[in-house]
Amino acid sequence: MESTPVDLSQYERDLIFDSLNLNFNRTILESLLQGLYTLIVAITLWTTFSAPKKSGNSFLLTVVIILYVLTTVAFGVDWAYQRRAFIQNGDNFFSVFFALQAISPWWRTSQLVVSISAGLSTFIVDITIIWRCWVFWGRQWRIVLIPGLCAIAGTIAKSMQIRSVFINTTRDIGNIGGFAADTDWALIYISLTLATTLLCTLLIVYRIVRLASGVSSYGKIVGIVIESSAMYSLTLIVYLALVARNLESSYYADMIMAYIKVISPTLLIGRVAASSNLNSTSQVIVNSTRDRSSVLSRFMTRKQQTDIVCRDVEDSTSSLGYFEKSEIESV
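Structure for Family A G protein-coupled receptor-like protein, as requested:
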């Protein structure tokens, strides 16, 4: 147990309490977001597996499951690290602060697992966005060349950021620079991630505008794709602005961005699956209407006189065809 130094100034005490308050609030926010994310994943998987067409969703379902596993592992490790500091070393405020900031095996493990999980999640999300853009552009590789290079460069920048965290740390907790030590690499990494997302989103929008008449029947799904990318892009822009100014709120923005990043593709898949289920229900209604019309037609046909059966059957068939068409359009 670390005893509280008697020579701590009031300013140093305030800094320590601010740091503890930041870590504690951030853990609460992370727990709430993890619970929300778990609920969204559960609903998405249920909706997707309930959809009539499942074969086309195998790739995106795999992405959702991998992202959830990576995020949950990072959450579990961070939770254990925070619990160790606040509970097992919670004798006084300085012992908690020392447990959080000291360069120990626990600190190294937490930093490594959380950073690698975040980097892999970002890379997978970027690849998913690039894949959507590639599909929209008719599988033309030259279209996604620049976003792909940005994603690769961003992964390299993330690796350098992780490396800088371990290089710039010392065993003297007074020399720890915290978030400021990683600002340069963080800015490069976030900028490249934002460039990947914005480029793919703009390319998708441009493609839709060019082929507006050809994709009108898929307008709802196209809108869902754009909304998903826009939500992630806006979060990245806000996060980039906060990190560039090195504000304390960037700690909270980092956590929010980490979950928006994985929630966006999950919501996309869930909404598309729900839309597919709705379309299937509409088709069932149309088929049911067609069956009722057929029964009514047969009933009316049996009531006709024998000498005009052929003519009435032809008229009934013609009317039935028009009725079916009208019902389908109204549904």
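Residues 38 and 70 are 12 Å apart (CA to CA).
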